[in-house]
Amino acid sequence: MRWCLISLSILALAVGEVTEPMAQEYVLRAVGTVAKKDRRNVLDIFPAYHDALLGLEGFSHVVVLYWLDRNDRPEKRRILRVHPRADSRNPLTGVFATRSPVRPNLIAFSVCKIKSVEGGRVFVDRIDAFDGTPIIDLKPYIPSSDCVPTAKVPDWVGTGKRR
What we know:
The protein has helices spanning 74-77, 143-146; strands spanning 3-4, 9-13, 25-29, 32-37, 40-45, 61-67, 81-82, 93-94, 107-118, 121-124, 134-140, 147-148. It is mostly beta strands.
């Protein structure tokens, strides 16, 4: 089995050497938004960042980092343990060991197949985000550095299929 890693302001919290919650804050600026229309998935990049797309068309896949803005409530950010995949049959697990949408910083990512890059728009096959979701960064998927063939995962991860 092969495992692979796959002018809006966003407030992010520092995770790590912080002695009190909310002690350090950082501002992330969205570089675009997800557009889902007529069964098309488009990464609409803001004009100020169009030049950053140069060369992306040479890659087959892109890693899209985005903000789970519809889940951004203080009570959701305080949840630190969940049942993975919202399945109570899975063990209670810390959010840093899951892909849960509730977490201190609501950063998510999807690895998307690039269909085309046209101007400031990146057309992708699919993305696990809502229409209007803020995009905070794009990175090319590079198999030699983004894939870990010997990765170990807990039993509840299984083959990636939901129970």
